Amino acid sequence: MVKPNPRPELVLSKDPVRHYSKSTKLADVCYDIRGPVMDEAKRIEDAGTTILKLNIGNPAPFGFLTPEGVARAVAQNLGASQGYADAKGITSAREAIEREAARIGIPDVGIEDIYLGNGVSELIVMSMQGLLNTGDEVLVPSPDYPLWSAAIRLAGGVPVHYRCDEDADWQPDMADIRNKTTNRSVAIVVINPNNPTGAVYTRPLLESMLGWARQHGLIVLADEIYSKITYEDAEYIPCGSIDEDVLVLTFDGLSKTYRAAGFRTGWMIISGPKHLARDYIEGLNVLAAMRLCANVPSQHGVESALSGYQSIQALTQPGGDLFEQRNRAWEGLTAIDGVSCVKPKGALYLFPKIDVTKFRVLDDEQFVFDLLHDRHILIVQGTAFNYPEPDHFRVVFLPPRDELAYAISEIGEFLTTYQQHPR
What we know:
35% of the residues lie in helices and 14% in strands. It contains 15 helices and 15 strands. Helix 1 (36-46) runs parallel beside helix 14. The chain starts with 35 loop residues before the first helix and ends in a 7-residue tail after the last helix.
């Protein structure tokens, strides 16, 4: 007698070859800063050609190194970093961030309101996974830092991009924010100082944004990783310091200000009416515990970073490398006939605009590919930052001034004869 198969779905296929596909959750998720153009740059480099990389805000390759005191604190505590730490982070780091929050005017923050993560990027993903249900909308600036849009989509949400106005120094357009807020909106992302435009938002604008968030019950997701990188009279104002009646998640870390991108240490501060977010916070605690803990050794550098000498100030003041490189890059780009650029007041980037009629640019990614092949210079197309028109690109101004001058001269020469044809 033949016994029936108790699990008929396990009957083997006659074809033993099975093809594996990515999850459908990834269908609209992309991060083109490290996308096809960078893959092509790597291929060219592997073939023996040097590429000048102006695509990623990674300070170390350009000689902007982690402050010695921060690196020393990490090295000296390696022996104490061999086991798991608290899921939210080590006590000394969270206490230092608590003091920093008080210093910059974010009220009523305790160490239990602070989460350490493997860079701000991990915390962005975690915050969206803990918050969003399928179809929830999050207002995101355009142009944006694309990890936000990717994290929202991965969590089942919908990024709704609000306009930032190039003619107003890239400040967010409040009218567009109002028009795009719906009953599905749960949060708004504020990137200040801004990546990719270098804008630093004014107090009246931030007050309007926080006021709108309060009126509509929106959580404010404040990406402030460039908080200490401002130029001239630009003033960084923390979102968490503006309105105590708005729930704000503030993101910052060691990567940019302290030139420690590889340390992968960022933090998230929860402020405002936390009693209204107990369930959400419980979810964040679960997600923090699931990854056991963030990278422990580099957390020992946080206290030294926040309480020590702020060497970034010497770099951003007149005569400092970042200040002078920003000026050199901006002057060079705006001297190119057919290129304009709002002068950045913060961060590490310029977001120039191309006269697409003059150069017949139909596809900004194709323009970036063509520049890479012709001049071996790697930049990022504007549409990678969820900007709707193919007429911008982003460059970092981290290379030394002579390298920047060379790169911009090459871009200018390339553009003099560039006429794109449909693919």
